[in-house]
Amino acid sequence: MKFDMGSTTLSTLGRSTSGSSDDMGTLIKQLIAAAQPLEGKFNGEGKALFDSFKLHADEITAALSGSLSSILGGQSGMDTAFGTGDTEQADNARKHMSAARFDAARFHG
Q1: Helical pair 9-35 and 44-99, crossing angle rounded to 10 deg
Q2: What total number of domains does the chain contain?
Q3: Contact of 96 with 31, CB cutoff 8 Å
Q4: Residue 51, CB-side half-sphere exposure with 13 Å CA sphere
Q5: Which of these, 9, 40, 49, 109, has the minimum number of CB atoms within 10 Å of its CB?
Q6: Dmax of the chain from CA atoms?
Q7: Which domain holds residue 47?
Q8: Domain assignment present for 42
Q9: What is the rounded CA–CA span in Å between residue 79 and residue 16?
């Protein structure tokens, strides 16, 4: 199995996820504002659930934001690890190539 990923894949993904996190917070606020005219229109269980949603909207937003923040942290860590691994691989290759005696090889055709 071959795993091939461009050097900017994770940083690009991180920027995209960061933008999605900002968008999500805005969308939740818009949902709450859009639901405002419905206040007082529900009775019974519907009212209880609507009131619960409004009461916990900030908690929901914070929990989702925290989750996305953790995802961003993971993506950043992976980006650092892949970058470090790439650099170490190149350094090791240069080190071993400089120690090799290519002039000692005799190639006959």
Answers
A1: 170
A2: 1
A3: no
A4: 9
A5: 109
A6: 92
A7: 26-76
A8: yes
A9: 14
